[in-house]
Structure prediction request, 544 residues.
Amino acid sequence: MQPDHVRIFDTTLRDGEQSPGATMTSSEKLEVAKTLSRLGVDVIEAGFAAASPDDLRAVKTIAEAVGVTGVEGRPVPEPPTICSLARADKSDIDKAAEAITPATHGRIHTFIATSPIHREHKLRMTRDQVLEKITEMVSYAKSFTSDVEFSPEDAGRTEMDFLYEALQAAVEAGATTLNIPDTVGYTIPAEFGERIAMIRENVRGVENAVISVHCHNDLGLAVANSLSAVQNGARQVEVAVNGIGERAGNASLEEIVMALYVREDLYGIGTQIDTTQLTRASRLVSKVTGMMVQPNKAIVGANAFAHEAGIHQDGMLKHEETYEIMRPETVGAGKTQLVLGKHSGRHAFANRLGELGYPVSGDGLDKAFARFKKLADKKKYITDADLVALVSDELYQPTEYWKLEKIQVGCGTGMPTATVRLTGPEGQLRTEAEVGTGPVDAVYKAIQGIVDVPCTLLEYTVHSVTEGIDALGEVSVRVSPHDDQAQPDKINPQYEHSRARVFHGHGAHTDVIVASAKAYLAAINRILAIQEARRDNEAAGSAA
Ligand code: KIV
Ligand code: ZN
Prediction:
């Protein structure tokens, strides 16, 4: 039986996390999983359990916390299916099976490359050997769960006759989802759509499985290819929030969902996503991965609903549909308004955050409200954009091993100097002063003098959240720690990345030097959080 809606399979936490610098802590992954559940996604690919003990733990935590009851606000009664990726390999499948066990609906997604270039150069396997592996490993995965997805990696460049054989072997061995990945983003829409139509015609038993697609964006065609596949019978689309993922990324969740929503007249089928949660999901993923959303990005970019040209504004005032094919509210992008000021109370503050999609309460609300009051002392009007920056800064930060207490800088044409005071993990107060090439350099040197987590600053960006001299400045940094040069590759853990892992941090403040210090400390705290999780998992592993 084919589903009556297009299933949304979200891979933000797996393929998305493979983007350089997008490393998330386990609590951030859990937060993203909850948001995906609230969106109504059908399947959450929570990670690649065999990549490391941290990854296995993260998938399991999500299976326990989100895969049993869903979360409050989920638009559909059933919890999402929790999935782990696994190579066509017994030990990978064992780990995936262990990780998804707590979920009510657990899926193992196993894959092996099928294209000639991968068979010859990467796998060094013949067609027959690949087919044998598919049968063996899909059957093995099936011994753990009835829900098994199979992907012929690089299907976009696989000979059609061999693709049919590979998919047939998978479906005969019990695969319930056949996923067709355009791994390197090589195909174009008409061609990819035709591939799906031909698979439906030529693979025996294909009607017993859901056809899925997983498109990469190397030519900027991931969304177009996925939609063409839907027109040709695909009923699951693999996506990532903001389109993040390997290289140029995956098809963007919000673009696929809204194309199916706005053009349901054409596609005749929709999704079960609550579209009003899209903006919130986009902001959260941007915060926790440090990957900024370009202002002109469809659906969730800052300018997606901004009308600049006079003729457009005139048309909009006469009738919104003159220049708008969807309302901003439909995707949860409320209009920017002057909302709160220094006399606004806690209740109004919490209310507005709730309306913006950030239902904060308890300790989180106390902290965010205290920051709001401080900001309101400096800034007359607090806009929605300020509120979002402030609450994200407070809620979506890694554990604070090191916390900024005080900062003093002197700059000008002389010698820029900075004095920084931090509180450490054991509550110790440390102060350090440094000279730098500029105030930010001096601050970062002073911080390093205290924390001693040597790293290279790869990227530093600052932008103003709203207009005006009293605007909040938001700083984002990306750093690479010196003792973390070689990392196991996520898909092929036997290889090591030659590149170092990249960590991000962000901070918001009316003083950009303070925002800079906060962003740098957030990146350092992220490194420390990931190192601690790794040590804990190693200790748990050796104790077991
Ligand atoms: O791009 C790809 O081929 C993948 C597979 C593992 C599905 O991510
Ligand atoms: Zn991929």
